[in-house]
Specification:
Layout (H helix, E strand, L loop, with lengths): L1 H22 L6 H28 L1 H4 L3 H25 L3 H5 L5 H10 L2 H12 L4 H23 L6 H20 L3
Organism: Bdellovibrio svalbardensis
Protein name: Manganese efflux pump MntP family protein
Keywords: Cell membrane, Membrane, Transmembrane, Transmembrane helix
Amino acid sequence: MLLEVLVLGLVLSADSFSAALAMGSRPFTKNDALKFALSSGGAELIATLVGFLAGSHIISMISSIDHWIAFGLLAAVAIHMAMEGIEGLRHPHKEAEEVDFHSFTKVLIVSFATSLDAFGVGVTLGVANKPIIPFLASIGLWAFVATLVGLYLAKRLSDKMGPIFTLVAAAILGFLSIQMLKI
């Protein structure tokens, strides 16, 4: 289970990493980086918890098909992430041009926009009746770290690394969705 917890947290951090790569192309201070990382990690954690609470309440009604629901949700998240990665490869400068790093309100918006996938995963965890605390810790911590790494790597890496990382993460999440059918 530890590997599942760590991998899921890492996979969900792809959007945080990609957003940080885009935002890192603008000037930022250490304080800005910390605020963004806390916002990103917190948003991922909150979205996962809300999804989990929603998912755990419906488990008794759908226990005979819960593995199909988990598969569908994870597959949808994987497809969404793959589409984001492909769009990022097609238009590598589009996201960076649209983000204004100077506003904390915009940092919060980006943080919550990139955490929508975590909501779907949270529902899946609730439906699968998984212990939520380890997943929350992993997801929040990975998003925090990925945001910091993304910001600081943005100055050194090309814009294509964010979309490639998102595509790899989508493939891993797709694999995890298929694993749900074997439960």
